Amino acid sequence: MSLLLNGAKTVTIAGTEMSCIEIYTGESYTLPFTFTDSGGTPINCTSWTLDTSAKFYTADNITYSSTVTDQITIGNLSLDSPQPSTGAGTYSANLTAAFTTAASGLGYIYIPANLTGGTGSPNPTPVIALANSAANTTLVVVTLGVTRTDALSGKVDYNREPIGMIVRFQ
Q: Structural domain tally of the chain?
């Protein structure tokens, strides 16, 4: 099973390859996706359920290759502490993931405009105030959780699909 996220670049963070989208503070995004098999055929996801969560990190340096257009180098990544929370110990209440056509594996992840900007309680999201700077950039790893019943074993499988969001001030 693979997750194809429209409009994403591929980035490797700590050895893990993931889709990555660059966004700006105060903007919201609906990111369409498709689940496909190894041959690229859409998967029927009718009985699947989705959930989302997010982890916030600070990168002290992000650079873009002048020769390889889809290469991003992220330097000195550290997990923010405390993590932003909307009251349930997680930021996930502000994220949305759903299928639009489950039989064809089509769906979306919604990233709200308040991903950064000091919103949320008891632990607010980070405030980004450095215009046009690669220093002190927030990286948010949004995780799409997928619960489905395995066709062979009949057991319930749960896996996580990480998606990186590089957040910039605009």
A: 1
Phi, psi of 113 (to 5 degrees): -65, -20
Q: Which residue has the tokens 């055929």?
A: 41
Q: Cα dihedral angle (106, 111, 112, 116), rounded to 10 degrees?
A: 180
Q: What is the pLDDT of residues 109-160, one digit of tens each?
A: 888 887 777 777 788 888 776 655 555 677 888 888 999 999 899 999 999 8
> What residues make up the domain containing 135?
2-168
Phi, psi values for residue 84, rounded to 5°:
-55, 145
Q: Fill in the DSSP letter of residue 93.
A: G
Give phi and psi for 103, each to the nearest 5.
-65, -20
pLDDT of residue 87: 62
Q: From start to end of the chain, where are the E strands? A: 2-5, 9-13, 16-24, 29-36, 49-64, 72-79, 96-101, 106-111, 137-149, 156-168
Give the model's pLDDT for residue 18: 67
Domain CATH for 153: 2.60.40.10
Please give the pLDDT value at position 5.
Answer: 55
Which pTM was predicted? 0.78
